[in-house]
Design a protein that fits this description.
Blueprint (H helix, E strand, L loop, with lengths): L12 E2 L2 H10 L7 E5 L5 H9 L2 E5 L6 H5 L6 E4 L8 H5 L6 E6 L5 H11 L3 E9 H8 L9 H9 E9 L4 E2 L6 E8 L8 H11 L7 H8 L7 H5 L12 H11 L4
Parallel strand pairs: 2-3, 2-5, 3-4, 5-6
Antiparallel strand pairs: 1-8, 6-9, 7-9
Length: 261
C-alpha cells in the first residue's frame, strides 16, 4: 500500500528481512516472551516479532497505517493506535500478564523520553532492544573516561547492562535518514532496589545541567539552599566536571544529598 512518509513522526522504515531477524535475535525473543513494540510502521518488524514471540503489543501513532497493519492479520499481535509517549504506563502494561521485553526501531525524535518512560517507571521490563541513532548508541554504552560518557551512559548503567549488538547503515532505511544507526540491547538488572530512579535521574540532571561546568557550579545553582554544605559532602570532587565521576560515586553522593533536598 502506498504510504506518505511523515517526518514529524520519525518514520524511517526497514524492510530487509535479515536485519529484522537479526534484531529479534539480538533481543533473544522466544515463544515464552511478551513483547512491546513502539512504532509499528508498516509492520515489518512486527511480523518477525509475531512469529518469534508468544504475544506482541505494538503501538503506532499514525492512524493512516491502520489498514496496512490490520491487513497483515497477525495472530499474536495487538495493535494500539495511540501515542506511546503520552499513553499512561498502566494502560500499556495492562496488555501483559507478566514481564515483557521492548523491541523497537524507535522514532528518533523521542528516543530518550521513550526509553526513560520505561526505565524510570516500570518494574516489568526485562530488556530493551532498540534501534537508535549511532551517536546516541555510543552515548548509551560509553564508560567513564570515554568521550561519549555522560548522563545517558550513567542512567543506562544504573538500570542495566548495555551493549551495541550491531551497526546499521542509513541506507537500510526508507526514506534514508541523515545518520547511521545501531541496535542497543540492554538487559535490565535491579542493581539499586533502594534508590528511586526518577529522583536519582533528577539529581543527575542537576549535576549535568550546564555542560563543561564543575559540579560546584551546577549544584550550587540547582540546590541554592544547601550551597554551603556542598564542599563538606563532595570534597575535592566538587571541582570536577560531572563526566569525571563514576556511577558508584554519584550513588554515594546522591544518598547523602537526597536527605537534604
Ligand atoms: N518498526 C517500523 C517503523 C519504524 S519508524 C520499521 O522498523 O520499519 C518509527 C515508527 O514510530 C513510525 O511508524 C512512527 O509513525 C511511529 N511513532 C512515532 N512516534 C510515535 C509515538 N509517540 N507513539 C507510537 N508510535 C510512534
Amino acid at each position: 500500500m502506498k504510504h506518505n512518509f511523515k517526518k514529524k513522526f520519525g518514520q524511517n522504515f526497514i524492510s530487509d528481512k535479515n536485519l529484522l531477524l537479526a534484531m529479534a535475535s539480538d533481543a533473544k525473543i522466544d515463544k515464552a516472551d511478551s513483547v512491546l513494540e513502539i512504532g509499528a510502521g508498516q509492520g515489518s518488524l512486527t511480523k518477525v516479532l509475531d512469529e518469534k514471540a508468544g504475544k506482541v503489543v505494538s503501538y503506532e501513532i499514525d492512524s493512516e497505517l491502520k489498514d496496512t497493519l490490520q491487513s497483515l492479520k497477525l495472530k499474536n499481535t495487538i495493535f494500539v493506535f495511540k501515542d506511546a509517549l503520552k499513553e499512561p504506563l498502566q494502560n500499556i502494561e495492562s496488555h501483559f500478564e507478566g514481564n515483557y521485553k521492548i523491541v523497537a526501531n524507535l522514532p528518533y525524535y523521542i528516543t530518550s523520553p521513550l526509553i526513560f518512560k520505561f526505565l524510570n517507571s516500570s518494574k516489568r521490563v526485562k530488556s530493551l532492544t532498540v534501534m537508535v541513532q549511532k551517536e546516541v548508541a555510543k552515548r548509551m554504552v560509553a564508560k567513564l573516561g570515554e568521550k561519549d560518557y555522560g548522563l545517558l551512559s550513567i542512567m543506562i548503567e544504573f538500570y542495566g547492562q548495555p551493549n551495541i549488538s550491531r551497526y546499521v547503515d542509513k541506507k537500510m532505511f526508507l526514506p534514508v535518514p541523515k545518520v547511521d544507526s545501531a541496535v542497543v540491547h540492554i538487559e535490565l538488572i535491579d542493581k539499586y532496589p533502594d534508590i528511586d530512579g526518577q529522583k536519582f535521574y533528577r539529581f543527575l540532571q542537576a549535576c549535568f545541567a550546564m555542560r563543561r561546568k564543575t559540579l560546584q557550579n551546577n549544584l550550587s545553582h540547582s540546590y541554592p539552599l544547601i550551597k554551603d554544605k556542598l564542599s563538606s559532602i563532595f570534597g575535592e570532587d566538587l571541582k570536577k566536571r560531572s563526566e569525571q565521576l563514576s556511577l558508584d560515586e554519584f550513588i554515594k553522593y546522591y544518598k547523602i544529598i537526597e536527605k537534604l533536598i
